[in-house]
Design a protein that fits this description.
With 332 residues, the chain is mainly α. The protein is 77% helix and 0% strand. It contains eleven helices and no strands.
């Protein structure tokens, strides 16, 4: 693979890639949830990593990734104001890591793989950390006891740790594959523009099936929380029928409710107020960039939907591959 960076790319291409990253962060997840694509969170994180790698390959300035990260955070705040602070932590982690890795042109493929693996492992670790903080060690000990009873294992095994490690390993492998694919994607843009560019001379309007209302989106973390609370509630109501004592269930349930209440009513509002003030200051500095990206957002969204609709002729991984090729061809 040719690892020479395409420094001749015009600045408008840089803005289009930032607009694509913002669309992926603020809107693509709802579309994929509506289409019932499995592992949507993993795919959206992978799309963000791909955008960073594309910017690194075609960036017009040395600090292009860091600048793009701040701009994406601004538009994420504007387009998806209800996103939690943890979502912005992931964005800045990915962006700053990308800026740190791609300071020069050497070993582009290796750096793309490192970015993909670390970014997706961070995403998985963040979810596990949230569950641990909310429910504490007591819940995970109860999970171990429950699985031990199911398996009939006489020795106490830390099954919850095994589950967490498998979950992280899946994300690490996905990050490896995404890093390889994204680096190849960046180097083959010209060929795919010739192959798929004719689809985007006049992108047609999106069909109704692709316009998924955000209200229908249900994150996997919400489903997990509801499932855990349901189990805890049943343990309280029927203490003799469950593996978890009612006193432990009450403590875990109360702990999670108190922590969530503190998060939603105290920590999150304060974090978002401070973040909005910081972003408003940055908005003055990047006013010209923001206006340029704002102009590209409708066109980028249209290309995104057009690519998604046409790629519907394929299924599973084949659809994701065709979609990514067409999307990049339409953006660049």
């Amino acid at each position: 693979m040719n690892t020479t960076l395409q420094e001749g790319t015009d600045r408008q291409g840089y803005y289009r890639l930032i607009a694509l990253w913002a669309i992926c962060e603020a809107w693509a997840g709802g579309l994929m949830h509506g289409a019932r694509i499995p592992f949507t969170g993993l795919l959206v994180s992978g799309m963000a990593v791909t955008c960073i790698i594309l910017i690194a390959y075609h960036r017009p300035e040395p600090a292009g990734i860091l600048r793009a990260t701040i701009l994406v955070a601004f538009f994420k705040l504007m387009l998806s104001p209800h996103s939690p602070p943890t979502a912005y932590i992931a964005v800045f982690f990915q962006g700053m890591l990308g800026q740190l890795l791609f300071r020069n042109r050497k070993y582009f493929l290796a750096k793309a793989i490192i970015l993909g693996v670390l970014a997706l492992v961070e995403s998985a670790g963040q979810r596990i950390l949230v569950l641990w903080v909310l429910f504490g060690n007591s819940f995970w000990d109860a999970v171990n006891q429950f699985i031990q009873k199911l398996t009939g294992d006489k020795d106490m095994t830390d099954y919850s740790k095994m589950i967490a490690l498998v979950y992280i390993a899946i994300h690490a492998i996905a990050g490896l594959l995404i890093g390889i694919y994204a680096s190849r994607l960046a180097s083959r843009v010209d060929g795919w523009k010739k192959e798929y560019g004719h689809h985007f001379q006049e992108p047609g309007p999106a069909e109704d099936e692709t316009a998924v209302p955000r209200k229908k989106r249900k994150g996997i973390m919400k489903v997990i929380f509801l499932l855990i609370w349901s189990i805890l509630a049943l343990a309280l109501i029927f203490p003799n029928s469950f593996f978890l004592p009612s006193t432990d269930a009450a403590f875990i349930l109360l702990r999670s409710i108190v922590l969530l209440g503190a998060w939603f009513f105290v920590v999150k509002p304060l974090c978002m107020i401070a973040f909005r003030k910081w972003m408003n200051k940055k908005g003055v500095k990047y006013r010209q960039d923001i206006e340029q990206i704002r102009l590209w957002l409708p066109r980028t969204r249209q290309v995104f939907l057009h690519s998604w609709r046409i790629s519907g002729s394929q299924e599973g991984i084949a659809r994701v591959r065709l979609f990514s090729k067409m999307l990049i061809a339409g953006i660049l």
